[in-house]
């Protein structure tokens, strides 16, 4: 997981609360991704950013917003958390031209 | 419909045994990657295969890319408890700007 950091590592929210998951990379790659991982569902793409200042929806974007203010950081925001958003969230960066992604250690989120 | 199908979903074997897991698709991929994910951690890239028919070895792990570049296999020789984990395959189909992931092969090696 070298190169990608995520905070916090664990979080418990009540329904309706908001929070921002932080992700930062130190390898100067353009593309960054947010996934959620649920049992039996695999990794599902929430949002991605091909470069600084651009973002695009993935497979499951509803209930989330993202921000790519600079090349290094890509944050994921839950405006009004729901129990269905209980999951493990992974941020990843991609090495251009190689289709290889490098993941952070994950944020384990529980929404009560 | 899952673009990449991995089988078996779960496999439990004794230490020292061999195992093979599979990643299949009806689409052609320019490359496929294999990742291993251990409990409580993020996936870690193991290998990328690019050429149809290519075989890559990583210690006791052997990765093969199908001739038609639609499938891949991972063979572990003399499995060790440290090989326990979720093995994910991933690839980007031509014309698609997103990497697709399979749901994974959960491997448990019993000491």
How does this structure look, described?
The complex is a heterodimer of chains A (112) and B (111). Chain A is 0% helix and 55% strand. Chain A is mainly β. Chain A is globular and about 40 Å long. Helix content of chain B is 0%, strand content 50%. Chain B has strands at residues 5-7, 10-14, 19-24, 32-37, 44-49, 55-58, 61-65, 71-76, 85-91, 100-101, 105-110. The termini of chain B are far apart. The mean pLDDT of chain B is 93. Chains A and B meet through strand 5, strand 9 and strand 10 of A and strand 5 and strand 9 of B.
Largest sheet of chain B: 6 strands, mixed
Q: What percent of the residues of chain B sit in helical stretches (DSSP H or I)?
A: under 10%
Inertia-based shape of chain A? globular
Average predicted local confidence, pLDDT of chain A: 93
Q: Spans of chain A of 5+ residues with little confidence (pLDDT < 50)?
A: none
Which structural class should the secondary elements of chain B be placed in? mainly beta
The overall strand count of chain A is 11
Strand content of chain B: over 45%
> Could you state the order of secondary-structure elements of chain A as H and E?
EEEEEEEEEEE
Largest interface: A-B, 23 and 22 residues
How many individual helices of chain A? 0
The end-to-end distance of chain B, rounded to whole angstroms, is 36 Å
How big a fraction of the residues of chain A is strand?
Answer: over 45%
N to C succession of SSEs of chain B: EEEEEEEEEEE
Radius of gyration of chain B: 13 Å
Catalogue the unreliable spans of chain B. none
Count of runs of 4 or more consecutive helical residues of chain B: 0
